[in-house]
Each structure stands twice: as C-alpha cells, then as structure tokens.
Amino acid sequence: xxxxxxxxxxxxxxxxxxxSQMAAAFLTxxxxxxxxxxxxxxxxxxxxxxxxxxxxxxxxxxxxxxTPKVLTTEAVQSSDVVITMGCGDACPYFPGKRYLDxxxxxxxxxxxxxxxxxxxxxxxxxxxxxxxFRIEPAA
Length: 139
What we know:
The chain has helices at residues 19-31, 50-58, 73-77, 112-132, and strands spanning 8-13, 36-41, 81-84, 98-101. By secondary structure, the chain is an alpha/beta fold. Strands 2-1-3-4 form a 4-stranded parallel sheet, covered by helices on one side. Helix 1 links the parallel strand 1 and strand 2 (36-41). The longest helix is centred in the C-terminal third of the chain and has 21 residues, at 112-132. The protein is globular, with a radius of gyration of 14 Å. The two termini are 25 Å apart.
C-alpha cells in the first residue's frame, strides 16, 4: 500500500466500457472516499456500454455520465492495486504494485440479461476487496 492510509485501486479492461466501469462504480459506491478509484482501458471505446449502464441502474448506481478513459502509465504508477479484466499484455507492469486478474465474461455486444450475472460477480469481488482492506461497505 501507499504511504497514505487510503488505498488506491485501478480497474483496467480493453475498452473501459463495461467490466472496469462496473467495478469502479461499485467500489466508489461501497467505499466512498475511503478508497481512491480509477478505471481505464488499453483501447477505450467512445461510450460506456448501454446494457452496462442499464444493469448498474437496476443496482441503484448511475453511470450514464461516465466516459471511457485511456490507460496511462501515471494511473498505474499512482495505484496500489491494479485489477485487470482482459487487459492482456497492454497493461504496464511496475514492481511493488499488487496485480490481480479478474477473469470475467465480456459484456460487449450482450444484452442486459447477460450483463446482470457479470455485474453481480463484480460486486461480489469488490466486496471481497473491501474486506481485504478492512473497510466496511456503505449500506
């Protein structure tokens, strides 16, 4: 962890339009300002997947205003934990960072019914990450 008491997490997927957006939204929603949250993509899309926006709205989280962001070296360097989701070799590696690879289905091209189980698995994993940080999730 960094020297600050606030852990920093970066979620990375190729398009930053689905999985990483959901993960960042759940972590922000559940941790508030107790965790610094970033998300990015190695080849960002122009918009967030609409089925993902709809699935997250069903969970009470509005990500309609989010936009995909490009993965930068600075984002990786300033994060304690880097969680990849299909990023492949595009994600830069820096010693001293904790890397996790979450194998999750890609919601690209899927309808909201197919996105729901991906969303629910991401929420489960984010809650597990909060438990590791010893941070109680917001209600």
